[in-house]
Amino acid sequence: MDREPPILQPPVASVAQPRKGWWKFLPILALIAFVSAVVFVARYEPVANKQYYPKCGFKEITGFDCPGCGGLRATHALTRCRIAEAFRFHPALVLSLPIVAYIAGLWIREWRRTGNMPVPLAQPECNRPLKWIAILFVSLGLLRNIPAPPFSWIAIPPPPTPTEDLENPRK
């Protein structure tokens, strides 16, 4: 029984293997799907074309605005270059855009450095900005449901009624 305890060695980092098969095309397919969704929202305004968009399940069940409520209208306003209106619909979405651009820059930098398509969101420096985005969305979702005056200012504005649309036509 004179066995020595095993020597623990730190794990060795594995060398990233290049992706094979259809995985090489996954980021490109994801980008095509994202751009297609933005073009669809740009073309079909969310309030006027409700038949194309599903109802918010969270709001249907609880009656409260979810952290993403107003995001489609904000995206539509951003595609029309109406940044103030987009901020009014969903401030967290507008504030998160520079953070998303930073994460995309990190990802592209890693791609250029290694020559291989990196695994999305696997770099440690992406974790902190993702936490910022999550904090933005969750805090907005909580604060906009408080009916007190300072918080009611960030509540989603109600959709325009048909008479308001006729009185104030957009060009």
Average of per-residue pLDDT values: 82
Shape: extended
- Give the terminus-to-terminus CA distance: 88 Å
Secondary-structure element order, as H and E? Answer: HHHHHHHH
Q: How many E strands?
A: 0
Low-confidence stretches: none
Main sheet summary: none
Portion of residues in helices? 40-55%
What gyration radius follows from the Cα positions, in whole Å?
22 Å
In short, what is this structure?
The chain is mainly α.
Question: How would you summarize the topology of this molecule?
Answer:
Layout (H helix, E strand, L loop, with lengths): L25 H18 L13 H6 L8 H9 L3 H7 L1 H24 L12 H17 L5 H4 L9 H6 L4
Helix pairs in contact: 1-3, 3-4, 4-5, 5-6
Q: What does this protein structure show overall?
A:
There is one protein chain. By secondary structure, this protein is mainly alpha-helical. It has 8 helices and no strands. It has helices spanning 26-43, 57-62, 71-79, 83-89, 91-114, 127-143, 149-152, 162-167. The mean pLDDT is 82.
Defining traits:
8 helices, mainly alpha, 171 residues
